[in-house]
Structures are given as C-alpha cells and as structure tokens.
Amino acid sequence: MFLAKGATYPGMPLQFAYPAAIGDLVTAVLALVAIFAVAGNREGGRFLVWLFNIVGTADLLLAITLATIYRAPAFMARPTGFRRSGCRHSSSATTSCLS
Q1: According to the model, what pLDDT value does residue 99 have?
Q2: Which of 23, 51, 74, 76 lies at 20 to 30 Å from 8 by C-alpha?
Q3: pTM score > 0.90 for this model?
Q4: Are the C-beta atoms of 20 and 66 separated by less than 8 Å?
C-alpha cells in the first residue's frame, strides 16, 4: 500500500515509504514460503519460519526507526483517492458515516 499511487498520505516521506514497503513485501513472501514448507513437512521449514520472524522483526524496527528519523506523521488519516461510501464531510472537523 505504501507504493500504490493515490493510496498514500501526501506527506509520507519516501525515505520511509520505500524501505517499509519492500520490507513488508519480503516478509509476506517469506511467510507464504514458510507456510507451505511447514504444511508440506519439508526440510528447512523450521528455518524458514525463523527467517520470516527475524526479517519481519527487523522490518518493523527499521520502519519505526525511519518513521522517527524522517518524521513520518503518526496518524496519516485515510489514504487519498479512497472514500467510504455513505460518508458525509461537513465544514467542521467531523465526518459522519452511515453503517
């Protein structure tokens, strides 16, 4: 999502977004490979689970560090270009959405 055009907060620093997105992608791919290795009782399955956890933890720590260094906003509101159906935006700071 960090790299999807129109789905990111306009003020998100690219120095944070790209490493976070790549780290998330690598972690997700490792998770899928580990799932199939463990489910198939394949050799190296346990190693892949450990690798997934280490890479995922490193990605999380790197994302927090980069967000702090490059001052990524703590709350990035909703992504631009997406709008929940049934939401009305008033002139005040409130938004009302129908269930």
Answers
A1: 47
A2: 51
A3: no
A4: yes
